[in-house]
Amino acid sequence: EVQLVESGGGLVQRGGSLRLSCAASGFTFSRYSMNWVRQAPGKGLEYVSAISDNGDRTHYANSVKGRFTISRDNSKNTLWLQMGSLRAEDMALYYCARGYCRGGNCYAFFDYWGQGTLVTVSS
Amino acid sequence: SYELTQPPSVSVSPGQTARIICSGDELPKQYAFWYKQKPGQAPVLVIYKDTERPSGIPERFSGSTSGTIVTLTISGVQAEDEADYYCQTVDSSGSYAIFGGGTKLTVL
Known about the structure:
The structure holds two protein chains of two kinds.
Chain A: E1 3-7, E2 10-13, E3 18-25, E4 34-39, E5 45-51, E6 58-60, E7 68-73, E8 78-83, E9 92-102, E10 105-113, E11 117-122
Parallel strand pairs in A: 2-11
Antiparallel strand pairs in A: 1-3, 3-8, 4-5, 4-9, 5-6, 7-8, 9-10, 9-11
Chain B: E1 9-12, E2 18-23, E3 33-37, E4 44-47, E5 61-66, E6 69-74, E7 83-90, E8 97-99, E9 103-107
Parallel strand pairs in B: 1-9
Antiparallel strand pairs in B: 2-6, 3-4, 3-7, 5-6, 7-8, 7-9
């Protein structure tokens, strides 16, 4: 069974930093692209960042570019999101999501999601 | 930047057919995907590549496309279908996801 378990969320001051983790199990982690998607309270889904299966390619939404860094360790089946210079608008539930990959090709949509970890930014 | 537009809400009686539309200028060139999200839960993929249904998703969920509009159709709506539904596509390079604003489906 595919499982994605996020952790690392919490209360942080504006301008501060936080590192989110996503522990993956139930599938061959190294064969899948991975992503972070967030959802502000009462709002819709927003793509944040993506990383290729071997970690050599990353992509960021314009809203977080230069402030967030996505990374992964395939030997530990773990995905991270290092968040810096946090703003009030970064406050959200952050989901780890597996990219859909078949036959060695990965696509920018998501077939499994974790339950999310909440980031609260205080002033 | 590229946007997807969804109606904020759709209401339907049990047993009827619900249609949720999503419009975007790039939809003729890129696939669309649909997610269902119930309160307090993570999103679940219900349609991918415009019309494909993942295993485990009931047959009453279907997707279609026509030009700049994609449609999620739920036939024979049940109370458990009440949720927020999000359409999604990808940018022109296929590199990242773009979400619609979501539609709240209410089962009367």
